[in-house]
Amino acid sequence: MKIEIWSDVACPWCYIGKRRFETALNAFPHKDSVEVQWRSYQLDPTIPEHYDGTELSYLSDRKGMDPAQVKGMFAHVTEQAAAEGLNYKFDDVVVANSFNAHQLLHLAAAHGKGDDVKEALLSAHFEHGADIGNREALVRIGTDAGLDAAEINRALDTDKYADEVRADFAEARALGVSGVPFFVIDRKYGISGAQPAALFTQALQEAWQEAKPLTMVSAGNADAEACGPDGCAI
């Protein structure tokens, strides 16, 4: 079973959704048969590589949101994150363009380290105030996950994975994705948002049963003795 997750490193609900999904996946009996692929999505491709302002000023000045409303949103999201074991610090968040972070994710996926780097990027952005648009920060995150620094720099210098990142954007549009996180299971089930773990559990079970339906085996006697709600056969 394959699960594709469209997500942006700069999306606070994406980290919360990741945790809730992981809760369901870790309890899923067939976890070892599930392939997870992180897909790229950008909430705001127009952000400069280095934005001179806070997360509060970005949302209020560039998005036109009321500052009081933004502060209330920060408090709510921080509370939801804490329930998943995450320590959000919106006052320390560095607003930056996430495109190169997505390129790093594609490089990491090519080396089987996509989930490790996704986790590190989200934590760096929301919990540690790292600048995900900064080359040094991206190299440090990548090398901490086991990637080669020279290869990271070459990939970013040449935009090696830029077309793949943009292809993810285009595929999201084709699927009708208008917000993230967005989870697609076997290209049959779509889940939008950071849903409760119970919903992910239900979706995993339904998708697995559809992909691998139970086959009844009989030795030629379909009416063999059994017990039911009304009692047992005599």
Report on this structure.
The protein has 9 helices and 6 strands; from the N terminus they run E-H-E-H-H-H-H-H-H-H-E-E-H-E-E. With 234 residues, the protein is of the alpha+beta class. It has a single domain (2-211), classed as Glutaredoxin (3-Layer(aba) Sandwich). The strands form 2 sheets. It has a 4-stranded mixed β-sheet, with helices on both faces. Strands 5-6 form a two-stranded antiparallel sheet. Helix 1 crosses helix 9 (197-211), helix 4 runs antiparallel to helix 5 and helix 6 crosses helix 7.
- What CATH architecture label applies? 3-Layer(aba) Sandwich
Major β-sheet profile: 4 strands, mixed
- Helical run tally: 9
Shape: globular
Let me know the average pLDDT: 93
| Helical fraction | 40-55%
Keywords:
four-stranded mixed beta sheet; globular; two-stranded antiparallel ribbon; 234 residues; Glutaredoxin; 6 strands; alpha+beta; single chain
